[in-house]
Amino acid sequence: MARLELKNLNKTYTPKVIPVKDVSITVDDGEFLTLLGPSGCGKSTTLRMIAGLEQPTRGQILIGDRDVTYARPGDRNIAMVFQSYALYPHLTVYDNLAAGLKLKKTSADEIKRRIGEVSSFLGLDESLMGRKPGQLSGGQRQRVAVGRALVRRPTVFLLDEPLSNLDALLREHVRADLKQLFATQGVPVVYVTHDQTEAMTLSTKVAVLNNGCVQQLDAPQRIYSNPANQFVASFVGSPQMNLLTLRCQGREAILGDHRIPLPQQVSHPPQRVVLGIRPEDVELARSQETQTVQGQVFLVENLGMHNLVSVRINSSQGEGTNLRVLLPADQTWGHQEITLALPPASIHWFDADTGESLLRSQRRESLVGV
Amino acid sequence: MTTISNSQPIATSQPSRHKPKMTWRSILLPIAVVLVALFCLAPVLWQLQTSFKVNQDISAVPTVYFPTRYTLSHYIELFTRRPFWRYILNSAFVSITSTALSLAIGAPAAYALARLRPRGEKIVMAGILIVTLFPGILVFLGLLEIVQVLHLGNNYLSLIIPYTAINLPLTILVLRSFFQQLPKDLEDAARVDGYTIVQMLTHIVLPMTLPALVTTGILTFIFAWNEFIFALTFITREDLKTIPVAAAQLGGSSAFEIPFGPIAAATVLGTLPLVLLVLFFQRKIVQGLTAGAVKG
Question: How far apart are CA A87 and CA B148, in angstroms?
């Protein structure tokens, strides 16, 4: 039906305050794009520009080849779910759902039919229709807010952290519901969140934003397994990836008293590199493994399924390094020496100065649409 | 007998649960409430009582605090000897018009100040605040000159325009702070839904603003209804006078007689609409009308 295209979108308030710097993203029909990033990274501003609530300073927004950069929000045929739900407090649930359709002069029968469809789809009881938003629970309000977007049958869905006001259990349910629901819609969906779990579970495509720039635009799995730079590596994944800044000697990085060879693909190793490895990728060393490090356990955090063990790797030069490791919960750890294996395939290498991935830097342009 | 013998041991074993404790708080609080209420209401109650007293009781020495004879003659006198209906209508017209005008001008101004954040917003707000600090009497002589130059004397406009102007700062200040509290998301949602700016203001913002509009409207109305000096000076024609002026100018049958009864009756009649208005709208001023719009 339509695809959403952002071309070099830029929002500049003052020369020093630039929340969005030249973002270019394409979202096809049926794709679920998540804008992921810490607060203040420009994700909400980007979404508001797509909605037409903010004017971009430069750049273009296309919906199905139609330039809507300066169109009114109402003329874009988009629907938006707000973080605060933004239900009209003086209208009943039914009128809230019908408001957008009434403005488009949809016939009363059609409105009734669509609301019936959506409300049964969302499990909104007939008895709720006459109530005001103030008389609903948080979960019900959230569903009404989603319903208000659905009845419009828009060409693009925009969702601004719609789950952040729900409690943890409900959030998990609604997350699963939303995934199923938007999979059936077959239109572009843009979802803004700072919660990486939502980003990983819901999306077909994730754009990680920081300081107004797209850091990486990729499938969730690739964001996780092949982070394009140090920021993405540290932002995605919980517990956070270990990022160790190491000196290089020739083609080897020096970690404590150990030497870890850089991969073959790296043509010109920089002076200093950052070694990234996820806590769950570090293993207890078995006898046949060669790439191992020794360290001392100094902290054990029980996460239920696993123990998060912090290990200090000492070096003869004096300064030590900390490594966090996820180990099975069936073992207990005291303050003891431990030997860990760092599987070469799980190690991510970054340039310590630029933060870019050493492995990806050659083919970066083709992967990130900036 | 049985009940007494039963209740006795309980009462002695657990005295604190059955006898309410006599604390200083429980004695003094009701007394204080009654005293404060009496202090505030005494003049009103005295006027009310006077308006129903017969003339002998009003002027009797020693003062009759609890009259035995009551009469409606003062009220009847107001309507037969004077065009009192006319005064009420004049007051109502001037008050309602100036209230409506100050809301119609003040609300958009307040909305613009709250939402558009125009340049020099702080200067405008400071100006509005300073205007509220002027005593009305200060502008009175200047206004008189203007009224004379524009030939507005003995014209409703000579009251409506100053009343509106004097009430505008208050209206803008109150409504602006109310608009600032309204969640911005609601307006964004309305725009995404396809409302134009005007539709959004009338369909979404206005219904939520009603409590604030009613509150400021009542304050404006009360001011206009009670205003005396402008009404006394700018209006001299009998059929244009407002209630406060008319009540003050009630005369007796001779120059030496002060008609306390009719004055009291006029005061009561002049206050009654305000009391009814506040009582009626009190229920309409439902706080928390915006509850549920956003996560509460």
Answer: 54
Give the residue among A49, B89, B65 at the shortest CA–CA distance from A58. Answer: A49
Measured between CA atoms, the residue of chain A closest to residue B288 is: A134
Q: A53 vs B199: CB contact, 8 Å cut-off?
A: no
**Number of helices (H) and strands (E), helices first, in chain B?**
15, 0
Q: Which letter, b or e, does each residue of A61-88 get, where b requires 16 or more Cβ atoms within 10 Å of its Cβ?
A: bbbbeeebbeeebbebbbbbbbbbbbbb
Q: Is B190 on the interface with A (CB under 8 A)?
A: yes
Q: B192 and A73: CB-CB below 8 Å?
A: yes
Residue B239, chain A, CB below 8 Å: the answer is no
Is pLDDT above 50 for B1?
no
CA dihedral B153, B159, B160, B165 (to 10 degrees): 110
Q: How many CB atoms lie within 10 A of CB B279?
A: 9
The token pair at A204 is: 């077909």
Q: Are strands A292-302 and A337-341 parallel, antiparallel or unpaired?
A: antiparallel
Q: For residues B109 and B165, what is the distance between their CA atoms, to the nearest angstrom?
A: 13
Question: Cβ distance A194 to A39 under 8 Å?
Answer: yes
Q: Using one digit for the tens of pLDDT, what is the confidence trace for A153-194? A: 999 999 999 998 888 888 998 899 899 989 888 899 999 999
**Cα separations in angstroms, B196 against A69, A284, A307, B200:** 18, 64, 56, 6
* Amino acid identity for residue B56 in this structure: Q
Over residues B73-82, the pLDDT tens digits come to 989 988 888 8
Q: Say which of B188, B192, B208 has its CB closest to residue A90.
A: B208
Question: In what helix (H) or strand (E) does residue A348 lie, and over which residues does it extend?
Answer: strand A348-351
Whether A74 and B191 lie within 8 Å, measured CB to CB:
yes
Q: Do B294 and A85 touch (CB under 8 A)?
A: yes
Note whether A310 contacts B: Cβ–Cβ < 8 A: no
What's the mean per-residue pLDDT of chain B?
84
Any idea which residue has 């007051």 for tokens? B91
- Is the pLDDT at B6 greater than 60? The verdict is no
A134 at interface of B, judged by CB pairs closer than 8 A: yes
Q: Which of the residues B181, B185, B191, B193 would you substitute to probe the A interface, choosing the one with the greatest number of A C-beta atoms within 10 Å?
A: B193
Q: A351-364: string of b/e by CB count within 10 Å (b at 16+)? A: bbeebebbbbbeee
Cα dist from A198 to A162, A166, A347, whole Å: 11, 13, 25
